[in-house]
Amino acid sequence: MSLTPKTDWNPETYARFRGLRLRPAFDLLAQVGQVPQGVVLDLGCGDGALAGALDVQFVDHATWGLDASPAMLAKAKGYDRLIEADAATWQTEEPLSLIFSNAALHWLPDHATLMPRLAAMLAPGGVLAVQMPRQYFAPSHRFLRDIAAALYPDRFDFARYEAPVHPAQAYWQMLSPLGDVQAWETEYLQRLDPVSDIHPVHAFTQSTAMRPFVEKMSEAEAAAYATAYDQALTSAYPLLPDGSCLMPFRRVFFTLRV
Ligand SMILES: C[S@@+](CC[C@H](N)C(=O)[O-])C[C@H]1O[C@@H](n2cnc3c(N)ncnc32)[C@H](O)[C@@H]1O
Question: Was domain 5-257 assigned CATH 3.40.50.150?
Fold first, then answer.
């Protein structure tokens, strides 16, 4: 699947909060343990921020990076193989020792089908390790839907925006028939640096959760939408005296060893 430039990711704006976005990936990696022989797949690898860490931890394994975004893949270095594909349908006959996915699978629906399908590609003893934001009902993400619905009521199919990520317990129940599951949630208290012209939470979401809305708006509409979003954020996430703010951010994690 090749995405059009308008809908593609922007690696530069995404990388702005690299430290905050990668900490959960390292927390997940710390729980993976030994894996059998076979390929290590970074699923939704983005710009390859985790290629080095995977290579160091799984030194004798080939590492593959898979992503649907040509712009992200163009930046990704350090994998033995890069694959441009849709994670919802991609398939391989190669036994995978680890499927590692940080902050990517919340873009895909129907996890009850997706996760067992991924697990079926693992070698015996292999691990599926996943981290996804579970921020759907937090103001940062709820305002994006509410303001879009208020300003442009006929524009969006909100059925498409149903929360795709379940609580940790649901993943345990879904996957424990397939192997040994560890599942947990963490709420990170993120301090976001001041930004000159927009609210810091807006700066955080603009390269991710905000994209599906803005890509359906003209420039003028997007400007009005952004102004309303900034106003709403100011009451939910008050600025600290230095212009920064605190943003609680919930993430769900699981590892499944088959
Ligand atoms: C938030 S980034 C995370 C990138 C990387 N895992 C990291 O932690 O830095 C999410 C990535 O998921 C990719 N993605 C979203 N939907 C996808 C799909 N259906 N198939 C493959 N990749 C997808 C995006 O292109 C993007 O690069």
Answer: yes
Sign of CA dihedral 174, 175, 177, 183: negative
194 C-alpha to center of ligand 1: Å?
26
The residue extents of the domains of the chain are 5-257
Tokens encoding 121 = 């590609």
CA of 8 to the centre of ligand 1 (A): 11
DSSP of 62-104: -EEEEES-HHHHHH--S-SEEEE--TTT---SSPEEEEEEES-
pLDDT tens-digit readout, 153-194: 888 877 666 678 999 999 999 999 999 999 999 999 999 999
* Residue ranges lining ligand 1, Cβ < 6 Å: 9, 25, 44-46, 49-50, 67-69, 72, 86-88, 102-104, 107-108, 208
Model confidence, pTM: 0.91
